[in-house]
Amino acid sequence: MQRLAKLGLVVRFGRSVGGIRAGSKGHTIGLTGLGEAVLDVGQDQGRRHRQVWEGKPYFQDHTLAIAELHTSLTEHIAANGDADLIAFETEPKVWRRFGGIGGSLTLKPDYLAHIGVGDIERVVFVEIDLGTESLPSVLRKCQVYLQYWQAGIEQHLHGLFPSVLWLVPDGRRRGRLQEGVERLPRDAQALFTIALLHEGAQLLTTNGGLA
């Protein structure tokens, strides 16, 4: 969080929230105009990003986790020089609407990265799971990915279907999600890689790190 503040992506609000966190008071954190522009959370691409933007605690935590991933990824690339961030998309630009069983569906990834690793351009949908949603809800999202993959739209438009990287907070959550993915058809299981949050930048920039 201190790194995000130094980069000017977040700001701490004057009021604190109840409870004790890591030996001190917890604080409410908001995105600065720069942070909002980086994440592109607004629908209007041409508008100015000036206001500090505050939402519900879960949405704040999730949005900040996406910002943390992007920051870690760019810092890792700058420090190691072993990859290039060619392009990235965040919500809502990264959303994919398609026709599914029973009507229109919308796949809502958290992040899409195009990363050059050696001679390969790696394309990855990233999902950040902080453990706040029920496991059935997370597995339903895996099913939406499966339906979108089966629709063939992404493959037709771009020649491939991105890998899907789930980043989770701890080993227990990873194990439970892995068990759920293993109940999918065998060919669909290959779409998904499940890892811990702190492993995201390393996996995205390492050959052979993803499915």
SSE blueprint:
Elements: H1 2-6, E1 10-21, E2 24-31, H2 33-39, H3 57-80, E3 84-90, E4 96-100, E5 103-107, E6 111-117, E7 120-128, H4 135-151, H5 153-158, E8 163-168, H6 171-181, H7 186-189, E9 192-196, H8 200-204
Parallel strand pairs: 7-8, 8-9
Antiparallel strand pairs: 1-2, 3-6, 4-5, 6-7
Helix pairs in contact: 4-6
Index terms:
globular, single chain, Protein involved in plasmid replication-relaxation, Trna Endonuclease, Chain: A, domain 1, 2 domains, five-stranded mixed sheet, alpha/beta, Replic_Relax, 211 residues
Question: What is the count of DSSP helices, taking H or I runs of 4+ residues?
Answer: 8
Strand order of the largest sheet: 3-6-7-8-9
By CATH, the architecture of the largest domain is named 3-Layer(aba) Sandwich
Largest sheet: 5 strands, mixed
Overview of the molecule:
By secondary structure, the chain is an alpha/beta fold. It folds into 2 domains: 1-54, no CATH class; 55-205, Trna Endonuclease, Chain: A, domain 1 (3-Layer(aba) Sandwich). Helices cover 37% and strands 30% of the residues. The chain contains 8 helices and 9 strands. It has helices at 2-6, 33-39, 57-80, 135-151, 153-158, 171-181, 186-189, 200-204, and strands spanning 10-21, 24-31, 84-90, 96-100, 103-107, 111-117, 120-128, 163-168, 192-196. The strands form 3 sheets. It has a 5-stranded mixed β-sheet with strand order 3-6-7-8-9, with helices on both faces. A hairpin with a 2-residue loop joins strand 6 and strand 7. Helix 4 crosses helix 6 (171-181).
